[in-house]
Specification:
This protein has about 180 residues and is α/β, with parallel strands linked by helices. The chain has one domain: Trna Endonuclease, Chain: A, domain 1. It is about 45% helix and about 25% strand. It contains six helices and seven strands. The protein has a seven-stranded mixed beta sheet. A hairpin with a 5-residue loop joins β4 and β5 (about 125). α3 (about 30-45) packs across α6 (about 170-180) and α4 packs parallel to α5 (about 140-155). The longest helix has 18 residues, at about 90-110. It is globular. The N and C termini lie far apart (about 35 Å).
Amino acid sequence: MASGSEQALDMIFGNFVIDPELASRKDSITKYAILARIRESYEAARIEAPYWKSRAEVHVGRHVTSRVDFAIGNGKIVQLTQGWSFQRATVEDLSTQIKAWAYAIGRLRNAEESRVISPDGKVSTIEAGVEVEAVIAKPTNPTQVEVFEEASQVFDELQIKVRDFDDAAKVGQRAAELLRN
């Protein structure tokens, strides 16, 4: 029923765990919701399924690998998109996840030899100047704000376009423009 471990945990948590923070969690935007919104933006922009790869791996240099939520392209990747929810109950590991992802993106930006491998094994080229987008759910408490501020610095340094959850449709629109060029 779940498309990934995080969605499965969200489903299990919502159905079987009683948590005093549940009221605040009900209104939060999950990573799964962000990914669904990004998928919708690609579909609304009429990007055909073969052009977008979900859960692809970016390989940089000989040994650095990072999974990305979406890679858009046809043999050559024109856009990478990652979803980040800062509305999680615990955000300590989120900071580490962002830094690990950013390390690979940083090396990509430094023009190290890179490629993207989709889950079905197809290899695509990728260049240092590829557009990288992050769709986020903004933080709602001080602990989440701390992690968000740290992430914002990383996003700025790596020239990552950050879009709010409500503006996710622009990701698909931009991908369609990039594919046409």
